[in-house]
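Quick log. Single chain, no ligands specified.
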Amino acid sequence: MGHGYESGRLDLPFVGISTFGKRPYVSDWGNINADVAILGAPFDFGTQWRAGARFGPRAVREASTLFSFGHAGAYDHEDDMTYLPGEVRIVDIGDADIIHTKTEESHANIEYGVRKILAAGALPVTIGGDHSINIPCINAFSEQDPIHVVQIDAHLDFVDVRHGVTNGHGNPMRRAIEKDWVTGMTQLGIRNVSSTAKEGYEDARARGSDILSVRQVRKLGTQAVLDRIPKGKRYYVTIDIDAFCPSIAPGTGTPSHGGFLYYDVLEILQGLAQQGDVAGIDLVEVAPAYDPTDSTQILAAQILLNFLGFIFAEKSSG
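-> predicted structure:
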């Protein structure tokens, strides 16, 4: 026994194996006993430009250890709240198996993982991977109560079919709106030249989607944006890291300047947790090779941990 082990371990962030938040790893997907389960979806064959988001889950997990000192709790003096106390059970179930060049089989494996989390009564948090991984995530909700999708993204991702491609990272919101269990969609941060042609925007709005750019969100203010999102619903939240300005999050395949800053998004997520039930989350498009500072993946981990903190603070307060 080395010095200092008398009262357990200090267990600093750079020590140990990088599960998400240094939480327990569960390899048996038939035995997920938790409030939250993290699934990695290291799939990036859906990208149309720079690949590399297959390394997103690993990078976000490693970044998440920064917030896992463990000795002080996650106390926020502004909210006067300790987030994610020990009684919130978070586990990391590892990654869905990805079969290179085979989209359908890889997506099926991701869907299987999310279904297993839902069957266990836990909140699924899937870390991509490119945005196409949202397609199997939404598919996994077919047996669940209806969901309203909240997308935080630079790009609309509402392409129906282009050159025969229906399941790339420009298609997920179009695939989602087709589902009987998706009741509507709010798309925030959409700006500049997008993944989607004008007809796609018209199609999205015709199907009831509410589309706001970063400038429109800021002009309205957080509360007015939240007031546009149906209250008391079950929300599925999909966060593309390129929603953020590449000045703070360059580690992504399709950066778009003029993006959100941290609190722009954080306050919307906090409001969502307060006005409805968050039923599922994915965070996509972190491609760590493009950010040698690790800032992008730290932002991703920080957003996820804070969002989970807000969700369970609401649950514990009734």
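The chain has a mean pLDDT of 94.
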